[in-house]
Amino acid sequence: MIRAATRADIPVLVELIGELAEYERARDRVEIDDTMLELALFGPEPSVFARVATAGNLVVGTALYYRSFSTWTGRPGIYLEDLYIRPTHRGLGVGTALLASLARLALDGGCRRLEWSVLDWNEPAIAFYRSIGAVATDEWTRYRLDGSALEDFASSV
Known about the structure:
There is one protein chain. The model has no long low-confidence stretch (mean pLDDT about 95). This protein is of the alpha+beta class. The protein is globular, with a radius of gyration of 16 Å. The chain has helices at about 10-25, 35-40, 95-110, 125-130, 145-155; strands spanning about 1-5, 50-55, 60-70, 75-85, 115. It has a single domain (about 1-155), classed as Aminopeptidase (3-Layer(aba) Sandwich), CATH 3.40.630. Strands 1-2-3-4-5 form a five-stranded mixed beta sheet. It starts with a strand and ends with a helix.
């Protein structure tokens, strides 16, 4: 079953974020905690949204996303920040169901795009995304300012 996340899901969502970071070889970079995620999901101005996949009473996967906007299409989109399925439930259609629920949410909300990034070495994910008809946008390179580089640049002007 796929449903919107609730406040009661926050501890398991933080756990799943940690598991995803472990898989992506970046566990030491995770800073989020329950309080931070609760504010992001359910604060006065939510900045992220989440769907969860359940098997019985257990949350076995999640999709965390936020709204984006395309100036070219003049319409909103959805950017999938994290998609994670626990290893015990992979290959059972859980990821497909989560992504399909976001696709439906996008269409129902007048969105033109559902987009995400994937690590270039994550061949199982890349194969899955290709199997559902997703295409890589290789012509774009994603850039990031964070940490001291963000602080230095902000104070330079």
